[in-house]
From TrEMBL:
Belongs to the TRAFAC class myosin-kinesin ATPase superfamily. Myosin family. One of its GO terms (biological process) is actin filament organization. Residues 51-758 form the Myosin motor domain. It comes from the Eukaryota. ATP binds at G148, E149, S150, G151, A152, G153, K154, T155. It comes from Takifugu rubripes. One of its GO terms (molecular function) is ATP binding. Residues 611-633 are annotated as: Actin-binding. The gene is myo19. GO terms for cellular component: cytoplasm; membrane; myosin complex. This is Myosin XIX. Keywords: Actin-binding, ATP-binding, Motor protein, Myosin, Nucleotide-binding. The keyword Nucleotide-binding applies.
């Protein structure tokens, strides 16, 4: 084996540190390589640089091999997103990568001026759609189409998109309260776990495979804030309830009940430990999706009450009990098939959980009613017919319950039509499926993928190239795979697979697989997209889909397309004591419809009609595609198999998309709208031309084209001056092209125009703000000056009025006080010795007895000194060199003297202590001519605390003692 045979393809396992192992493989088929072998080898020689191509349009040359090697190099370095022109390629890592989807990363992409400059991420697609709604001249609804085969990661990608919009479209809310925003966000996100629990299952190719299609419309108001959402579902695989393929599981909700139920719930649901249910295969396998508590919390957040939840789980438990009911063939054909004892117990349990009569339930399953005119006949059912009726009861009950859940979710999260204005749709449909045995479900699923592929081809490949030619662009067509022939095979008229299948279903006869195969071969033999294996034992046909050929088994396809519901079963459910069960089947009684109407309604017809309505929505929106790629069929982390990835790249037309995106112009704007949006650039550029015509109606297309060219010249002149670069004519044509009616822009040119427009708008906004602020400042200053003058006048008037009141009050107080002082002074003069009285009156002579008793003889003074009046005696009593003789007449004066002085007796037997020591006597101040005033901090006298009052009986002595020194 030479060196050319050793290729760095992914092996089956991981190396050290989680790195992928690479093993020797045979050379890749030559069909992968275009004739440019030399250029391809030259490109692949720089293998260490392949991971740097974040946009595959930069790859040169663009071939399946070069694209594959770039994706492989990026996957090896755990880079899972890559731009492919107008499409995002997402490789499934098959392992948690939490740091890649954190809230900080969301806000980083949301707040970035140019998210396209960041690393490729699904958040770039989400932000581009969000800004298209917010920034376009005429907002257009957006759709995010997430496609890929089963297990490629579509459900996870859709979940990330919903989380992104719930975060960025509700975080800046100013009109709504935070509680309302959080409620909307929580309900939108909580719809996911419920829908996945009831609609997803574990298959051979994916542990969380969506067994239904859903289109979620995230509703935005005029401010582009999330106000609600709605869910549309397509083709629930209800046959999985009663029939699970080998090594696959039933819907997640049944396993969640088995693993998460409490003892009380197990008793109520008749789910004993170790109980085996026929419709729950692989119950020992535990998955991450088996989170019962998460489902219960989501139900509570959406407003499903505890009572309603209890009814839902009783219905589900009754369905499981039905699965254990088996029938045995009766020996007498005139008698219904029999039940063994264990099956009778399970039937009794199912009847109790569904709250219906066990006898009626048994009769409905084993006996069918035939209508013959106005008469009805009862006919026993065979074992196979009874099993079919049992399965039909389980399927119709589960399908109606699922429909009710979807309706309840929509009523809970959908906003009123007057509230929301635009929406962003997230489409998550089943991936392309090809199993060992494929039937009607796979046919419908692959038909839906064909329609989506056609929409992609029509929107991005064929429509763009045709428009380039019609607008006069020099364009060389890129070949692409068109799947129109396959769609004509399935839905074409007047004869197609679906039409033949519907005709066979409407015939009032037992279906025959061989007969249908012969008719298909006869009617559709000229279509190259269908083929037959004549040596196969089982009747089947093979369809050449865009993703590869798939063989479909014809046996049972007609019965599944009929999807008959016996009226007896509906009547039985309407008698149930479970209100929810009666509600979900009410109004859909087949008796209320005619047989002719029922014959027209088939599974294929309903699915085709719902898919056509979905395609109308997609055609009315701006689509954004994310292609999910499954690196290996075993869902092993960090394992990259070239053949697996190559087939997916070829099937979804990635290489053709890169060719057209690299050479084309993804943005196309009519001249009038272009001038209306970007005419402001020419108007504020300082150039005389450009922008003037944007304010006036343009009469002709040529005139509008000339104005657009003038405007573009202005933009390029400013760009050259700002960036100091020169742009030649070839570079101009690569960025923008003027067609006959539209302007074709590349993404860099759009960014250039938007940046220039934002700069001018910011400058205009700054000028407006300056003028407005100057006006507000002047107005505020005038108001402030006026307020100051008014306040000064009012305050001066208030002060003058207060001063006048104070002057009047002070005059009244002074007059009153002066009168009071005069009165007290007159009273004091009447009681105390006055100097005038002492000068006019001669002191009376003292009798010898008084002289002897009232005098104190000192040794160095011969004659005693007689002091008239007790106050002066207080001041002179401390003179040791003076003989003091004190005379007091009257009881009041005598008591005052005795209380004020410490007078020892001559014989030492008598002592007088002043009571003023305990009453805080402050000082004694002598007045001229014998007048004395005693100053107290707190007077002990009776009238010390009295207020001046002319009517009170107060003496002058009290007034003297009330004068304080503090």
């Amino acid at each position: 084996m030479n060196s050319a045979d050793i290729r760095p393809t992914a092996g089956a396992g991981l190396g050290r540190g989680g790195r992928p192992c690479f093993v020797r493989r045979a050379a890749s088929p030559s069909s992968l390589n275009d004739p440019l072998d030399g250029d391809i080898q030259a490109f692949l020689t720089e293998e260490d640089q392949l991971h740097t191509y974040d946009d595959l349009t930069k790859v040169n040359p663009v071939t399946p091999t070069t694209v594959l090697k770039c994706l492989q190099a990026r996957y090896r370095l755990q880079v899972f997103y890559t731009h492919a022109g107008c499409t995002l390629v997402a490789l499934n890592p098959f392992q948690p990568v939490p740091h890649l989807y954190s809230q900080n990363v969301m806000l980083e992409y949301h707040c970035a001026p140019q998210p396209q400059e960041f690393k490729p991420h699904v958040f770039i697609v989400a932000e581009e759609a969000y800004r298209n709604v917010r920034g376009q001249l005429h907002p257009v609804n957006q759709s995010l189409v997430v496609s890929g085969e089963s297990g490629a990661g579509k459900t996870w990608t859709s979940r990330c998109l919903m989380k992104y919009y719930a975060t960025v479209a509700a975080s800046s809310s100013v009109d709504q309260s935070q509680d309302t925003v959080e409620r909307i966000e929580r309900r939108v996100l909580d719809s996911n776990p419920i829908m996945e629990a009831f609609g997803n299952a574990c298959t051979l190719r994916n542990n969380n495979s969506s067994r239904f299609g859903k289109y979620i419309q995230l509703q935005l108001d005029s401010s582009q804030l999330l106000v609600g959402a709605s869910v549309q579902t397509y083709l629930l695989e209800k046959t999985r309830v009663a029939c699970q393929p080998v090594n696959e599981r039933n819907f997640h909700i049944f396993y969640q009940m088995m693993n998460g139920a409490t003892e009380l719930q197990r008793k109520e649901w008749k789910m004993a430990h170790g109980q085996r249910f026929a419709w729950l295969p692989a119950s020992e396998k535990t998955l991450e999706e088996d989170g019962f508590q998460e489902t219960l919390e989501a139900m509570g957040h959406l407003g499903i009450s505890a009572g309603t939840q209890r009814q839902i789980f009783k219905i589900l438990a009754g369905i499981l009990q039905l699965g254990n009911v088996t029938f045995s063939t009766s020996l007498d054909e005139s008698q219904p098939c029999s039940l063994d004892e264990e099956s009778k117990d399970f039937l009794q349990g199912a009847a109790e959980l569904l709250c219906v009569s066990a006898e009626e339930l048994q009769t409905c399953l084993r006996v069918r009613t035939l209508q013959a005119g106005k008469h009805s006949l009862a006919k026993p059912c065979s074992q196979a017919e009874s099993s079919t009726r049992r399965n039909c009861l389980a399927k119709v009950t589960y399908a109606r319950l699922f429909e009710w859940l979807v309706t309840f979710i929509n009523n809970s999260i959908c906003a009123d039509a007057s509230v929301w204005t635009n929406f962003i749709g997230v489409l998550d449909v089943y991936g392309f499926e090809c199993f060992g045995v494929n039937n009607l479900e796979q046919l419908c699923i692959n038909y839906a993928n064909e329609k989506l592929q056609q929409h992609f081809v029509a929107h991005y490949l064929r429509a763009q190239q045709e428009e380039y030619v019609s607008e006069g662009l020099e364009w060389s067509f890129v070949k692409y795979q068109d799947n129109q022939s396959c769609l004509d095979l399935m839905e074409g008229g007047p004869v197609g697979v679906f039409s033949l299948l519907n005709e066979e279903s409407r015939l009032n006869r037992a279906s025959d697989a061989q007969t249908l195969r012969v008719r298909l071969e006869k009617e559709l033999s000229n279509n190259p997209s269908i083929s037959w294996d004549r040596f196969s034992r089982e009747p089947h046909f093979t369809v050449a889909h865009y993703a590869g050929g798939v063989s479909y088994q014809i046996q049972g396809m007609v019965e599944k397309n009929k999807d008959p519901v016996p009226p007896e079963l509906i009547s039985l459910l309407l008698k149930s004591d479970v209100p929810l069960l009666r509600h979900i089947v009410s109004g859909k009684d087949p008796k209320d419809q005619s047989t002719k109407e029922l014959s027209k309604v088939t599974v294929v017809s309903k699915f085709k009609n719902s898919l056509e309505s979905l395609m109308k929505i997609l055609h009315s929106t701006t689509p954004h595609y994310t292609r999910c790629i499954k690196p290996n069929p075993d869902c092993q982390p960090m394992t990259f198999q070239e053949e697996q990835v190559t087939s997916q790249l070829r099937a979804c037309g990635i290489v053709e998309t890169i060719h057209i995106s690299a050479a084309g112009f993804p943005i196309r704007i009519p001249f009038k709208d272009f001038l209306q949006r970007y005419g402001i650039i020419g108007k504020h550029s300082g150039s005389k031309s450009g922008g003037d015509s944007a304010d006036h109606g343009l009469t002709g297309v040529k005139e509008a084209c000339q104005e657009v060219k003038k405007l573009l010249r202005v933009v390029f002149q400013h760009t050259q001056r700002d960036l100091l670069i020169g742009l030649d004519q070839e570079r101009h044509n690569a960025l923008v092209h003027c067609g006959r009616t539209k302007v074709f822009l590349s993404q860099p040119m759009l960014h250039l125009l938007e940046d220039r427009r934002k700069t001018i708008l910011s400058r205009c906004a700054f000028t407006i703000q300056c003028c407005w602020r100057r006006y507000r400042r002047r107005r505020h200053r005038c108001c402030q000056q006026s307020a100051t003058l008014i306040q000064a006048a009012v305050r001066s008037w208030l002060v003058r009025r207060k001063l006048r009141r104070w002057d009047r009050a002070a005059a009244v107080i002074q007059n009153t006080w002066k009168k009071w002082k005069t009165l007290l002074k007159s009273l004091a003069e009447a009681e105390l010795d006055d100097a005038k009285d002492l000068a006019e009156e001669d002191p009376p002579g003292l009798t010898p007895v008084v002289r002897e008793r009232g005098s104190v003889q000192l040794s160095h003074i011969q004659e005693p000194v007689t002091v008239r009046g007790w106050p002066m005696g207080l001041a002179l009593a401390s003179a040791p060199s003076i003989t003091v003789s004190m005379t007091a007449t009257g009881l009041q004066k005598m008591m005052s003297v005795m209380a004020s002085l410490n007078l020892p007796s001559r014989r030492g037997e008598y002592k007088v202590e002043t009571n003023q020591c305990t009453r805080e006597l402050a000082s004694i101040r002598a007045q001229p001519k014998g007048s004395v005033k005693l100053h107290c901090q707190r007077s002990p006298l009776l009238y010390a605390d009295r207020q001046p009052d002319l009517k009170s009986d107060v003496t002058g002595f009290n007034e003297i003692l009330l004068e304080k020194t503090l």
